[in-house]
Amino acid sequence: MPVPLSVVIITFNEEANIARCLQALADVADDVLVVDSFSTDATVAICRQHGARVIQHAFAGYVEQKNYATSQAEFDYVLQLDADEVLTEELRQSIRAAKQNWQHAAYSLARLTNYCGHWVRHGGWYPDRKLRLYDRRLGRWTGVLLHEKFEVDAGQTTAPLAGDALHYSYHSIAQHVSQLNKFTSITAQELALRGKTQVGLFHLLFKPLWKFVHGYVFRLGFLDGFAGLCIAGISAWGVFLKFAKLKTRTEHAEA
């Protein structure tokens, strides 16, 4: 008998994405739970139209929200998705196979990202594997403010799944820049909490330069054309912003 599977998704104003995500779950999910942070658009209505359970829960951070969503799932076996991710048929087959013969604490899936209409396969953006299918009794979501990840207990094993989750990330350059501004502020705060407060020319000049060269040249980002150039350039700018915000934050704290 296959193990029963809960799919959990956290949302806030995801009306543009959530229906596409939910439509791909019919043959893998035995329970679909959406934990919504009080969206002001049609997200909740769309979720209920597709038969998902919806719980409203104030957002307290990505780690906290995903652990809360996991705890509210009906079953111990959980697939965590973001609203802008869609399972391909190959990945659904892999998940169904894992349900029939569950052998590990968690399974990783590859994400193939759509950036402004272009599928990105280079620059370090693919396969972008994440542990997303897991037994909640054998691990938990960890992290500080950002870059959350599911971490299995010591001694537990993981395995990769075949197939991709299609990740519809950024629809425009403006959206990428806006999100970058938000995330670099959070990352700077996270670095400060970890006690990393020293920022010099190396961080502000050479780290951004290396980020561009590493992604665009060594990770073959140039093969993705204009999208690859935009990703490398904006990613490098993000490194600069992160450290510039950290430096400003540190100086204000010392003043």
Automatic annotation (TrEMBL):
Q: Which Gene3D superfamilies match?
A: Spore Coat Polysaccharide Biosynthesis Protein SpsA, Chain A
**Origin, by domain of life?**
Bacteria
Q: What is its EC number?
A: 2.4.-.-
Q: Does the keyword Glycosyltransferase apply?
A: yes
Q: Which Pfam families match?
A: Glycos_transf_2
Q: Which organism is it from?
A: Hymenobacter mellowenesis
Q: Could you list the residue ranges that cross the membrane?
A: 216-240
Keyword Transmembrane helix attributed: yes
The UniProt record lists the Glycosyltransferase 2-like domain at 6-129
Task: Quote the protein name from its UniProt record.
Answer: Glycosyltransferase family 2 protein
Q: Which family does it belong to?
A: Belongs to the glycosyltransferase 2 family. WaaE/KdtX subfamily.
